[in-house]
Amino acid sequence: MTYPAHRLSVAPMMDWTDRHCRAFHRALSAKALLYTEMVTAPAVIHGDRERLLGFDAVEHPVALQLGGSDPAQLAQAARIGAAMGYDEVNLNVGCPSDRVQSGRFGACLMREPELVGDCMAAIREAVDVPATVKCRIGVDDQDPTESLFATVDASAAVGVKTFIIHARKAWLKGLSPKENRDVPPLDYALVRRLKRERPHLTVCINGGIASLDEAEAHLDTADGVQLDGVMLGRAAYHEPALLGQVDRRLFGAGAPDVEPFEAIERYRPYLAARLEEGTSLHAMTRHMLGLMHGRPGARAFRRILTVEAIKPGAGLDVVDRAMDAVREAGARREAA
Predict the structure, then answer these.
(1) Is 51 buried (19+), middle (13-18) or exposed (0-12) by CB count in 10 A?
(2) Which of 78, 122, 156, 218, CA to CA, is 20 to 30 A from 260?
(3) 324 phi and psi, to 5 degrees?
């Protein structure tokens, strides 16, 4: 089954979805939309742009996620990102970390929907690429049926069409960022209601989606609602092999699934190029640790990449040894 006019994206995750992670994920799926880690607008404007925003052409399509609450700063940062070639600019209205709260951006902006609308108006005016919003359904004691619609409607009023909804509240008082990923209950029905009542908007769902079976279930139209996309987070990171099935299962691409060994071979030219530039092997292979999840030899694969890749001068031979460990474990199982 394929799903028309939809998106499958991999969520922005701080300290995880860096440029090396995105290049690796692209080796598994040609279609999924990849996101940067959240970068604050002041950092984009005043920081090391190549370090913060640099990316390889292989990553397309790739979206830049910005954090901030100053419309002028966000517009300037969006222009910089668009000039660097990003395919989309996304505003984070969902991160619950203490640092984000103190900076008046992320999930706390759900208390200020008009400000979110002003920020999105500035971003849309600044760039020609799509400007999108990723948000929660509310924060703290807000009524989600009010806070979600108010946030979405304020941005839709200035021309924003696409919203990625993490279907949980964020509790800014009393829960850590980690707890905010799991403790607040999911309300998928509210996201579907948003799509039902705002059918002209592109509504994508995020939060607690652990498999492609679950992703397909969210795209099902049994209740008469056709969501426009699904965003995967930690499932795609911890078990990246599932991305190898995305193009066939969710986009209807004719090519066969990308198996883990093939993905590594696709990633190899990127690894070689970055090693030549002086990037450490570990910085790139740390994103591969879950690739062999569930296969014989997966533990040895992780151990070799964890222990050997951090050594000075570690090269592609480490990756080869990790792959050989999986092959050998698979051969032993077949021979048993």
Answers:
(1) exposed
(2) 218
(3) -60, -35
Half-sphere exposure of 239 (CA within 13 A, CB side): 12
Choose the catalytic residue: 21, 95, 108, 135: 95
DSSP string across 275-298: HHHT--HHHHHGGGTTTTTTSTTH
pLDDT digits (tens, 9 = 90+) for 183-219: 788 999 999 999 999 999 999 999 999 999 999 999 9
Q: Reply yes or no on whether 135 is catalytic.
A: no
Residue 101: predicted pLDDT:
59
Q: Which helix (H) or strand (E) holds 229?
A: strand 229-232
Structure-block tokens of residue 124: 């849309």
Calpha distance 288→217 (Å, rounded): 27
pLDDT at 2: 35
Residues 131 and 120: beta-carbon distance below 8 Å:
yes
Give the span between the Cα atoms of 99 and 79, in whole angstroms: 25
Query: What phi and psi values does residue 134 have, to the nearest 5 degrees?
Result: -115, 125
Q: At what angle do helices 113-126 and 144-156 cross, to 10 degrees?
A: 30
pLDDT in tens, 135-147: 999 999 999 999 9
On whether the CB atoms of residues 69 and 105 are closer than 8 A, the answer is: yes
Which residues are within 8 A (CB) of 226 and not within 5 positions of it... i.e. 6 or more apart?
3, 4, 195, 219
- Going by the DSSP 8-state scheme, the letter that residue 41 receives in this structure is H
Which residues, given as ranges, of the chain have pLDDT below 50?
1-5
Q: What is residue 157's DSSP assignment? A: T
Complete DSSP assignment for 103-148: TT-GGGGGG-HHHHHHHHHHHHHH-SS-EEEEE-SEETT--HHHHH
Q: Please name the residue that has the structure tokens 């077949």.
A: 334
What pLDDT score does 103 carry?
Answer: 65
How is residue 15 annotated by DSSP? T
